[in-house]
Amino acid sequence: MDYKFTESIASLAPSAIREILKYSSVPGMISFAAGNPSPEAFPIKDIERITQNILQKNPITALQYSITEGYGPLRDTMKQYMKEKWNSFGENDELIITSGAQQVMDLMTKAFVEKGDTIICEKPTFIGSLNAFRSYGANLVGVEIDDDGMNIDSLEKALNENRNAKFIYTIPNFQNPSGVTMSLEKRKAIYALAKKYGVIILEDNPYGEIRFAGKDIQTIKSLDTDGLVVYAGSFSKVLSPGMRVGYAIGDKRIIAKLTVCKQTSDVHTTALSQMITDEFMKTVDFEKHLQNIRAIYRKKANLMMDLMDEYFGDKITYNKVEGGLFIWCKLPKQVDMMDFCTKAVKDKKVALVPGTAFLINENEECHEFRTNYSTPTEQQLIEGMQKLGELVKEI
Amino acid sequence: MDYKFTESIASLAPSAIREILKYSSVPGMISFAAGNPSPEAFPIKDIERITQNILQKNPITALQYSITEGYGPLRDTMKQYMKEKWNSFGENDELIITSGAQQVMDLMTKAFVEKGDTIICEKPTFIGSLNAFRSYGANLVGVEIDDDGMNIDSLEKALNENRNAKFIYTIPNFQNPSGVTMSLEKRKAIYALAKKYGVIILEDNPYGEIRFAGKDIQTIKSLDTDGLVVYAGSFSKVLSPGMRVGYAIGDKRIIAKLTVCKQTSDVHTTALSQMITDEFMKTVDFEKHLQNIRAIYRKKANLMMDLMDEYFGDKITYNKVEGGLFIWCKLPKQVDMMDFCTKAVKDKKVALVPGTAFLINENEECHEFRTNYSTPTEQQLIEGMQKLGELVKEI
Predict the structure, then answer these.
(1) Are A150 and A190 a contacting pair, CB within 8 Å?
(2) A204: left (phi over 0), alpha (psi -120 to 50) or beta
């Protein structure tokens, strides 16, 4: 039988990048291509203790159907946390627990975006979000990123030209893949534009808590007095991605609709994961845990940047990072980026992600690639960068 | 700010039934309205042992990102199980692990149904699936159910009149809410019609393994030689709904597309849940476990049916059940069903689900209500039925 998929889904084809990433599983491959948290950052003993405790004391709650909004105690914990630490839970807001932050992108698009409606994104941006938007047939419009975040003139131009824009999607902290953090000034400017044009801001903040240098900047959500911002949070980078626990904060009316959408998607997020997360927040010193994680990433990021200085010289430039998981590197214009990445993976057994993966149009000119320092070991960082150094000599 | 949701989502409003179900949390309420498995049916000790073992021996796999298709060992286990026990995994098939079977309905609709395309459903049918279909703007067409499953003439008429039908949705075993099991003859007839009209069958089988009387009937999937059937399986009723583990089996090309869709929805299903499920299937005698569950439900179902015979007399009729979780009851035509259910919950503190909840058009004439015997205790079954008996005397 010939199957006829919907137009939006039929065009969600595996990309050229996936072809390159296939080599990642070759024995001896060093992967700088992943986006996984460091295995050393998992609080294994705490999770083991907490899980045993839950299954002994409260097994039925962990195993039975739960409500779509999320496990009550965890919702309360996160409302309080986000209010006290980040001033990001307002009096008209609600919070829903989701199956990872990825589900927030899915539900927001489902709730707001008719086929052909516009979503304004940073350019480049996270491929997982782009594909969620694409899966609903959204019209994607990219806005360039300066050193301090989205270019405001380009954003206003995009809003002007796309009156069917439903939301502005941004990763304000340690943006994936560019590593850029948006300045407070720009956060205010974007908020003002969103208000002017009556467009929602979808603030995706998976990396905000893993800042290992510099100072925290307040969230866009904390500026929100008009119910304009939906904030997506995640435990994937600070606790465990395998547990699939994220959350969304926004105006009550929006969260109510996201709840209806979630009910038809997966009924509720795994109950045990939610209970483990809540107990972790309640019984472990979360700030100290974050400090441990930040120390791991600081060390690895600094190591990779030192190695880049040593092996890339002035041939490849990169953005210094103060947090997150990624470094965005730029090749000279005369070097073919895809060719460089292909040689890296085939000849040097080092996997990188070609920058085109993060573009709305993968065929656009692009000289960047993304590296990750959280997944590889220090030894792998050293070896991999040495091998990339050999390749750099050839260009 | 005024929010503008998509047309399909804006119309997914809380229904009249939800208003009634709100009373369910009133103290002293006996709920026959839920669809939860019996807490006694959870193998708590096994899950506790298995979980501890996983977190001690293989914590990183449980906590790290996993692949979208699902945990490899569990996929292999289920392919073998479904092939050997149910002959329901063909040589062109693949299997994807989903976040409950609800996600299969979501992904199938996303992959196949453009706004306005038709899905043919049993009438009545599971509200969770109806809402998943509605959330993508599907045109829903209902087909009456006879004592042995979908009416074949009505189905052919529906297929004839709706040439944009993308799939036929059926729950062939212990259908929710009607309790009806489709005969083998009808399964063959539906398959033949699907083939004739080039339409996929979405076979939803959450209750198939909890047959406590009568004989198993082969799945529609086992008849599939043309890649026409997508089978949705679930661990919610046989292990734990809180873990959110389901799966879909279908032609490789379909499962590949569902995988792309799932990646944008929630990346992957909770890793720990998948590992627990796999270890349960491998280290526990699953058939014996099913026998235990069936014994629990047989006892409760028989008790509820005996009580119905006693208290309903010939005023309310019901379908005898051989499995599943629900009994479908029919009031005399002159009794207002919604009024009866409202009185039950308000005056007698017994929650029922009005049959209209399971209709495509909730305003259609309906004299049925659904009861559930798996969630209440035996004591609650007795008390609740006594109270309903008082109400029955008044009609």
Answers:
(1) yes
(2) beta
The answer to whether the beta carbons of residues A205 and A232 sit under 8 Å apart is yes
Instruction: Report the pLDDT value the prediction gives residue A362, as an integer from 0 to 100.
Output: 87
Decide if pLDDT at A364 tops 60: yes
Q: What phi and psi, each to the nearest 5 degrees, are found at residue A370? A: -110, 135
Order across the sheet with A326-330: list the strands.
Answer: A317-318, A326-330, A368-372, A353-354
**Contact pairs from chain A to chain B, CB under 8 Å:** 233
Contacts of A283 (CB under 8 A, 6+ apart): A46, A50
Q: Do B1 and A198 touch (CB under 8 A)?
A: yes
CA distances from B303 to A246, B94, B325, B327, B331 (A): 42, 41, 13, 12, 20
The pLDDT value recorded for residue A248 is 98
What pLDDT, on the 0 to 100 scale, is given for residue A64? Answer: 95
Q: What pLDDT, in 10s, does the model give residues B64-84?
A: 999 999 999 999 999 999 999
Find the closest chain B residue to A136 by CA distance.
B110
Q: For residue range A7-56, what is the model confidence (pLDDT) as tens digits?
A: 999 988 665 566 666 677 788 999 999 889 999 999 999 999 999 999 99
Q: Identify all chain A residues contacting B110, using CB atoms and an 8 Å cutoff.
A: 6, 9, 135
Contact A5 B39 (CB under 8 A): no
Neighbours of B381 (CB within 10 A): 21
Contact A51 B51 (CB under 8 A): yes
A52 and B47 within 8 Å at the Cβ level: the answer is: no
Does the beta-carbon distance from A61 to B273 stay under 8 Å? no
Rounded Cα distance, A206 and A202, in Å = 12
What ipTM was estimated for this complex?
0.97
Q: Residues B182-215: pLDDT tens digits?
A: 999 999 999 999 999 999 999 999 999 999 999 9
Q: What percent of chain B shows pLDDT beyond 90?
A: 94
Cβ-based neighbour number of residue A43 at 10 Å = 19
State the pLDDT at residue B27. 87
Angle in degrees, 0-180, between the axes of helices A127-135 and B252-266, rounded to the nearest 10 = 120
The answer to whether A280 touches A239, Cβ cutoff 8 Å, is: yes
Do residue A106 and residue B264 have CB atoms under 8 angstroms apart? yes
Mean per-residue pLDDT of chain A: 95
The C-alpha of A313 sits at a distance from chain B's nearest C-alpha, in angstroms, of 34
Q: Are A47 and B58 a contacting pair, CB within 8 Å?
A: no
Residue matched to tokens 């939803």 = B204
Q: Which amino acid is at B208?
A: G
From chain A residues 196-255, the ones with a CB under 8 A of any chain B CB are 198, 200, 226-228, 236, 240-244, 251, 253-254
What is the arithmetic mean of pLDDT over A353-357?
93
Residue B34 pLDDT grade (very low, low, confident, very high; cuts 50, 70, 90): confident
Domains of chain A: 7-43+288-394 (3.90.1150.10), 45-283 (3.40.640.10)
How distant is the alpha carbon of residue B209 from its chain centre?
A: 12
* B273 vs A: CB within 8 A: yes
Which stretches of A24-159 are assigned E, i.e. beta strand? 30-31, 93-98, 118-123, 139-146, 149-150
Give Cα A13 to chain centroid, integer Å: 21
